[in-house]
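Pasting as-is:
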Amino acid sequence: MAEKTVVALLFGGRSSEHSISCATAGGVLAAIDRSLFDVIPIGITRDGAFVLEDDDAAKFTLDPSSLPVVADNGTRVQWPTSALSRELTVQDAAGQVRSLGDVDVVFPILHGPWGEDGTIQGLLELVSMPYVGAGVLASALGMDKHFTKTVLAAAGLAVAPWQTVTAASWAASPSSVQDAAAAALTLPVFVKPARAGSSVGVSKVKSWAAFAEA
């Protein structure tokens, strides 16, 4: 029988979408084919600690009354000490270190900043760990709506009309920003953070009087 592929499942994270990432992990843990894959669940706490989590899909069920989180259990997962190794180790709460074995591939299912924006991809590139998904550049571009639209438009692809508002331009003259948006766009418009994932921070603006609040 062929050896199983060892997958390090990476979830949680520091973004506002921490719990959504945990729920995604629950889905993966429940669905992944255990005859083909061995899973090492690695959670990232809201404070950015890499901890060894339980291989328990039910623990990360999405429940609006009690959202799943990665709690700091005192363990610390340590990445390879060089690009020549794929061995992960874990230090337990008592300070004892043991090997988790070699990892074939890292599966990041982090949502939002510090997960989809090229940062975790850069870390994995540094230690030469194979991973699932887009690379550093594509992740960074895809996370930033301004640059995504700019690159797609430059490639000749159709994109919806947009207007980028920077913190500096808004601080200098909110009315000028609103006037520029009104000249370029037709109501209703959607206002969204340029670098947040999913539907975080989205507002539908039906009148320009409500633009500043959005």
